[in-house]
Design brief:
about 500 residues; single chain; disordered N terminus; globular; Jelly Rolls; 2 domains; ADP-ribosylglycohydrolase fold
Length: about 500
């Protein structure tokens, strides 16, 4: 982290941090909180996510940055409109609830197999790291291998970041506990920086229960992330740039994109303006929080206008801020639409905002008690934890995107793919003519690398159990390689189209 702070300004910063903690936490390692305040903060966390997601919904992946004068709609019925018309918008909420539900049914020590099964066989569609994690689990590749970058080209994507709120909400003031609850689940679909996105967001939630200073929250939560990671360096830079340019979020946005805007993992994002990388999108959450100045509307507006995954980022920012100020502190203008839907179940679940609040409250009490705290009739005593860094992980180490080559041809028409490098990722889709009728067909393709069978890929032509990419292979010996294919069970009216392939090299440019 690049800083230049005088002794005097350092004293002032430390003083400002001190007043952010409740009186009971200044001289002790615990915080006392009424159960009504705890519940209100948890309600604010879930409602905040819904509000932020709704606000950013119309802009998702439509902008790399939004002009300040471009209007974003909001009305007293805005949330109900999305619930009625596009309930799938709230994937960053109902994904969380999959895990909340397992904790509620099986307890804090539920085995990872329970979470993996609930996740993989849920009825909702998935994308990117989640989609590949589902495919891996359904084919016997269980966590943590299901999220590892060698098995998942989307390992650094945003997926766990948007669904890790549960871990922080259930562990108020206890970042190490939230990291524990984020470990097994987060590695179902992510690794490295992709996992850190969830760890960091969850840690910010834990601090939001006990502190109302955004920078303090950001700094304390960052202690859970290894300093040598790109993720840590980016969040540190955002905090430093905010200090240097406190009135210019657009400038910080530009510097983040200059330094961290190049995706090397996601096959859709490499060499593209599309960016679903966790590092970049976490930076946008942090920009929204820091430059939002504790103003709810300003926070979600900035997080949205940063662009990219601009429904999920304001959702996380609003959930964290909603935890700080509680549901009671969210301005009526923003929370009024919540009342219409707070008892309506999210898509693919039997859980509403109010039920999620109750479940997380139940789980928070158990985690508080397990962490050495105490539960009274109308008060809890939280034993605070000093955040500790989780283990260091790095996806795609020694792999640098070399080029992306377009194909757009049926697999029948591709004799071979010659490439030179140390890795390759091949994208595909099914093409069906008007005569084809769905009947549960699962296409099987044998892929040969340098003449040797490398994989037999089985992908259903419909439903939700397909892989995100047809084939990928990393850690090859640097040099020339050849891919060939054999379609094992051809059917009339349907084919696999090979869209493009991304080649990696071990030679840093």
């Amino acid at each position: 982290m690049r800083r230049s702070i005088s002794i005097l300004s350092g004293i002032l910063i430390l003083a400002s941090m001190a007043v952010a903690l409740p009186a009971s936490a200044k001289a002790k390692d615990e915080v006392k909180m009424s159960t009504s305040v705890l519940r209100d903060k948890i309600r604010g966390a879930w409602a905040g996510q819904v509000i932020g997601c709704t606000y950013g919904g119309p802009t998702e992946f439509k902008y790399t940055i939004m002009h300040k004068d471009l209007p974003i709609p909001w009305s007293e019925h805005e949330i109900k409109k999305w619930y009625d018309r596009t309930p799938g918008l709230y994937d960053d909420v109902y994904m969380d609830l999959t895990f909340v539900d397992v904790f509620e049914k099986e307890g804090l020590d539920a085995p990872i197999e329970s979470f993996a099964k609930a996740f993989a066989y849920a009825k909702y569609p998935l994308w990117h790291a989640n989609k590949q994690g589902r495919f891996n689990i359904m084919h016997g590749v269980m966590p943590p291998a299901s999220g590892h970058w060698e098995n998942n080209p989307h390992a650094d994507d945003i997926d766990f970041q948007i669904e890790a709120d549960y871990a922080g909400i259930m562990a108020p003031g206890m970042p190490n506990s939230s990291s524990h609850f984020a470990d097994g689940i987060g590695h179902m679909m992510n690794y490295g920086d992709g996992w850190y996105g969830g760890v960091y967001v969850a840690a910010m939630y834990t601090q939001a229960f006990i502190c109302d200073d955004i920078e303090k929250i950001a700094l304390e939560a960052l202690k859970t992330i290894p300093e040598q990671s790109k993720y840590y360096k980016c969040m540190s830079d955002v905090i430093s740039w905010h200090r240097k340019y406190p009135e210019a979020w657009e400038l910080t946005w530009a510097m983040v994109n200059r330094e961290y805007g190049f995706d090397i993992g996601c096959p859709d994002g490499v060499f593209n303006t599309f960016n679903i990388d966790a590092v970049l999108n976490s930076a946008y959450i942090l920009i929204g929080l820091l430059y939002g100045d504790m103003d709810f509307g300003k926070t979600i507006d900035i997080a949205t206008r940063c662009g990219s995954d601009s429904d999920c980022n304001p959702s996380s920012a609003a959930g964290i801020l909603g935890t700080i100020i509680g549901f009671s502190g969210i301005p009526d203008y923003w929370k009024q639409p919540v009342y219409e839907v707070e008892d309506r179940n999210f898509a693919y679940t039997d859980i509403s905002i109010n039920k999620a609040t109750q479940y997380s409250f139940n789980q928070a009490l158990k985690v508080i008690e397990r962490g050495g705290g105490k539960i009274g009739n109308d008060e809890v005593t939280i034993k605070l934890q000093k955040p500790e860094a989780v283990r260091f992980e790095e996806s795609f180490a020694g792999h640098y995107p070399k080029n992306k080559y377009s194909l757009g041809r049926s697999i029948y028409l591709v004799d071979k793919i010659d490439f030179e490098g140390n890795g390759i990722v091949l994208k595909y889709h099914f093409y069906k003519d008007s005569s084809y009728k769905e009947h549960g067909y699962e296409a099987q393709v044998a892929v040969y690398l340098d003449g040797e069978l490398s994989a037999v890929v089985s992908n259903p032509s419909s439903g939700m159990g397909a892989s995100a990419e047809l084939y990928w292979k990393y850690n090859l010996k640097e040099g020339p390689h050849t891919l060939t294919f054999k379609f094992l069970n051809k059917e009339d009216g349907i084919t696999i189209v090979l869209d493009n392939y991304l080649v990696y090299t071990g030679k840093e440019k």
